[in-house]
Amino acid sequence: MIKTVLQEKIGCKYPIIQAGMGPYSTFTLCAAAAKAGGVGNISTIGMGAGLSSATPDAATKVFGKGKPKDLIKKSIYAMIEELKDYPDAVFGVNIPVSNEFLTVATRLIRGVMETIEESEDVRKKLRVVITSAGDPLPWAIDAVSKGARRKRIPIKERAPHVTWCHVVPAVQHAKRAEKADVDVIIASGREGGAHCAWRDVSTVVLVPEVVRNVNKPVVAAGGMCDGISLASALAMGAVGIQMGTRCIATKESDFEQMWKEAIVKRAETETLIGRGLFGPMRFLRNDQSLRIVDETIKGASDLYRGIPCASNEAIMRLEMDGLAKLFDGDEDNSIILGGSVTGRIHGIPTVKELFDSIVQDAEKIIKDLPNKVIVPTINA
User: Fold this and answer.
1) CA 20 to 30 Å from 168, out of 46, 139, 209, 218?
2) Per residue in 15-47, pLDDT tens?
3) Which of 260, 278, 233 is nearest to 95 (CA)?
4) Residues 32 and 122 placed together within one structural domain of the fold
5) How far does Cα 21 stand from its chain's mean position?
6) Could you tell me the residue range of the domain that residue 228 belongs to?
7) Claim to verify: residue 37 and residue 140 sit in the same structural domain
8) Rounded Cα distance, 110 and 335, in Å
9) Model-level pTM greater than 0.85?
């Protein structure tokens, strides 16, 4: 069986991470991924006050009522109960740390740290904290101890047993994550769904260059979906893969059935990028995402020079309306996030079926490679 540094560090069976994805909690998906041998992740975006207030009925339906810190603690303890009969299952939490989400992120991370300190069971199973969409350095031990950002929580000091991962879209960001002393860098190419970068750097370019420039284990993300993806990631120097869009289209996924089926139906050309809740986001093409793109490009002449256009009230309204429409089953007017890998997704398996097939296929691909490479014979 394939064995990498990722499995050794975290204790998971497979080198596969289920990405954190909003607006849902991904609680059921996280549990299924952990039971299947990967790293499940609880999403936290929908626990934020901004989203909850914008779509109160939807947020209450998914998370219940409560403050972000209380909601994440409730979710973690519920996950411990869910996994009590699976001694080898491990999971994590994904917390965006962008400027727009900073206050909520601080409360969420504080809640995570409190559960770790309160419970031995949590320390055994909550093995990963993934930060994304922002700067990891203020959460490092040195930065916090200097008092510059006293409200931040030094993640590795408070939870030394946890593997701290940070998601990056560029080499310079990977170097900053290394400076913060994260344990694992997740290099995510622009073809990934939801939060991505304005600059167009694909996974196949990004991953090997991040591997070359940092002295940290690297996980490949963006466009990952099957055994070919895992074998390719390993060939590029990565120690595993993170999957978002592919995990949405599974039977246990918390996402709407309409969302899952939309991913299966779309071709690889049927996604686009517009301004999202924080930063650029990749959507499946439909009427609502086209409206967001129209608003994004108004007055954004600097967009392709890498200067991100600011969000505005119209974009936020379109996104919030689109999220609310998900619960109405209105596919054309919903916000449906997804990566260009949607064109390579053709079914809705269980998470176990998916993870087992990925590793089995990757192993077969790697073993068969010598038979597909012609080595010239050198005449004596």
Assistant:
1) 46
2) 999 999 877 778 999 999 999 999 999 998 877
3) 278
4) yes
5) 6
6) 5-255
7) yes
8) 30
9) yes
